[in-house]
Amino acid sequence: MNWKGKVSKILIAAIALLLLGSTFSIMIQGTAKASTLPLSQRINPWTGQPYGDIMQYEWPVSGGDSGNTRFNPGPAPNRPDILWTFRPPGGIGGMFGAGPPTAFNGKIFVYNSTHLFALNPFTGVVVWTSRLNGTPIGFTTGSVFKVDDTYLGYICMDRITFHRIDNGAWVSTTRITPALGISGLVAGEVLYWGAFFYREYKLAYSAARNLTTNQHMAVAFDCSNPTAGATLKWTCPLPTGVEALGAGGGLVFYGGYGEGEIYAINATTGKLVWKSWKVGDSGYSITYYDGKVYHSAGGTKVTCYDAKNGTKLWEFEAGPRAFFAFGGAAAYGLYFDKSMAIPGYVAAWDTKTGEMVWKQPAHYYITYGVPVVADGKVYIHTCDQAATGSVAGIQSPGFSFSCFDAFTGQLIWRIPINIALPIVAYGNLYGISGGTLYCIGERTDPWPTYEGSPGSYRVATGQSAPSDISRPKWYFQADGPIVGSPVAADGKIVFGSYDGNIYCIDAYKGTLLWKFKTGYRVSSTPAVVDGKVYTGADDGYVYCIDLNTGTQVWKRPAGGVAEGALFRSMPQKRSSPMVVGNRIYVGAMDGKVYCFDTDGNQKWMYTATNITYGISGSPYVYKGVVYIASGDGFLHAINATNGNMIWKLSITASDRRFVSTPIVVNDPRAGEVLYIGSDTGAFMGGRRLTIVDPAAGSVITHISLTLVGTASTVMAWQPAYKFNGTYGILYISENMYVSAWAIVNRTYLTRVWSQWVGHVIYSSAVYVDDITGAKVYVGNNAYSLICFDAKTGKPLSSYPTGGPIFGSVAVYEGRIYVGSYDGRLYCFSSTPVASTDIVAWCDWKECNVNETIIIHGKLRAVTVYDVKKFNPNFPVNYTEIWYPGIPNATVIVTFVKPDGSTVDVTTKTDRNGMFHVSFTPTVAGNWTWTAWFQGEDKISHAYDCTYTDAFPLKVKAPITEQPPAAAPTIPMEYIYIITAVIVIIIIIAVAALLVKKRAKK
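The chain above was modelled as a monomer; its predicted structure follows.
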């Protein structure tokens, strides 16, 4: 191999290492590029521009728009966090009773069989309620539609009714039957969607049948003047029972369930423009997109028509039994739909060619549902059957609703509920499941103190968090061990270290923002409230630090430095501050409890014990009372306003080891009770859970923690509490076990489950109320963090750290954070990582200097269609590999010169993942080029890195034309001789001539 070839191979290896390093940093070291911005500032993946005001992104009709594209151009959730739920008495009909929600004028609209509800889109609070005028018709029809900025309408049975949007006041009702002058609509003949509103023309469309003549017809009503009511615009006789499917391009489309024909009718005149026959039913709905009509429902074909004349442009045949139903969605040059084939699937088709771009497995009993598309994602139910059901003898995997990357089909998240008719508006997803309206968005709840939000009982409500923690997304290395817990707020993670610093790092990238030096090692957990960081009194001072800059705001003395109350072989636990309102409460090692206001003014000081014992437990504030344990075995109740003692209760006589933190709960079965870990007093005595009456200051009972036995470990944890609808459950640490206890009554608890973790536990449990399944996270001295199923106690996953974990996790924006004695702050996330592939080619293997060449290529995702992974009950292992293009991605083409130096050319992929690079080499010799993608960490998911081989390129120098050869020159001496000879000859000739003349004379 020559040296140039060696250089090329070295470059490829360097690029590979760079790419691998890039991925490693994204996944491990914390150089991820993604960060969470306000929804208005988030970048649209299709346009590359910020979204702006999110209130502009409404869903004014059932299909999102008149064409049923079911596309919202605004932002949409990357995580399945539950922001709120709404369930009126009797529930919401959902399937077979009500249509999808709609959203406009800053409200969400849903209804059941009797009432119409307007809700706040961000809280779920009812803005107004109005009684329905009539009964909803069809199975899923009757969605509320926006007429204009003042009025809304809906169609119920034979009535079109209008209300004011602002207060729900009834405006008018029009009976359809008298308007038609016929005997009216027949229940069961207007199926599924049935009624439709064309916003651009303010026309409502439905269908009817004359019971006398049996004539079917399409009907249109003018809704432009709600105060006067709807008026009949036109009727159009049709040969079969039909329903309104959608509209676009000045046409309204009808179809039915007998003849298999789609009818295009002029939207304003009612004149039939064209009709087209297809195999199978032609009902449910169409999608009008980019001048084309897409229909699939009721048959096994996806058909694309020219909307102007009904010409079939392409048709996809799904095969036997592969029925489609209800309708699809369209955006980004793709059509999305689902099929109840065996196995079922969700798929995307190229709208120009009809070629399937990607597909993902699904399981459908009847497929009555639709996808919605927004923010580069498609949302759709992927199983509409409970796990007890089956289709064609194949057991269902259970209800599921999924979010996919719209361009590549990469699964982003999946939740175990069935939302058949979702919508996207105002940055959130709304949908009905089991009679309950869910609002799914991205919670940004802070985790501001050692227990999360004050009074949260160490529970992250409605938030998603990873069940697979086998690999961290990244870690940050501090300069000393981490004993306390991290806290999170405003996109930042704050924690202390034994190196004496308070660290603040970026919550998304894991990069250092600032660190603040204190006077002693930090064991406590700071608190973050309103842009300020408040510390424990580890070095004898409480600090207030600006969260954004890391600068000191104020510093107040609090107890001095003490070596610690625990055995020297144990981590020295310290009291962590609790902030409630504008008050900060913290215990100190001088045995006192301090209260400051947020301006640093000391409001009171309470003496609980002396410096011999100190206070290592943290304060818990409940209904104006501060509860805190002192190292001499007493539990104190202190008036939070003035610092006066309310009561003092002896809990344990152990020597300098009472460092637990209590919680107070108002349990449905036990009432208001306080729970705290304690011991019997002996050095190796038994451990127990003590139950206290917080009002009386008396012990109710002690629950023996028999799994602990006799051990020298301290009870340093705080319980987590969650009411599951039947019982309140406490999650606690029992020496080497994690346990769940059900509160049966005020004096009795029963163990639900317990799991041995391998070593002692100082960490407190944290409960995440995740819709994908509740989880409990606990660290331990066995150098690991473990995630448990909160219901069964089954370990779901774990991660081995480089040291013991003494603190607890913080839950923030779909991620969890935990510190370890190895000095690392770990971040775990459920963000999936998609594999990628890149292909590239050039029509030139060689060229001349200064000649431009073009590199073509495609960046592709590797999307795996794995049926067995989706449904373990499927009888065979069936997989397919799809390679959809990745749009708007940055690709680099590196050219290596003959001397080994490089030139990088950067480009962006188009909507199909294609890229093209022009390059003009300026030096002759043997070149190589390589195309590569360094990976991308998006908020919702990530792409890994990929690169091509090194391709040779021979660059030739130009051929220089030689000038014509000069004629040979004669030496001057030869010229002289020749000249002399000629002269002599001339002289001789002249002389001869003269001699000859004389001779004649």
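Confidence is low (pLDDT under 50) at residues 1-35, 181-192.
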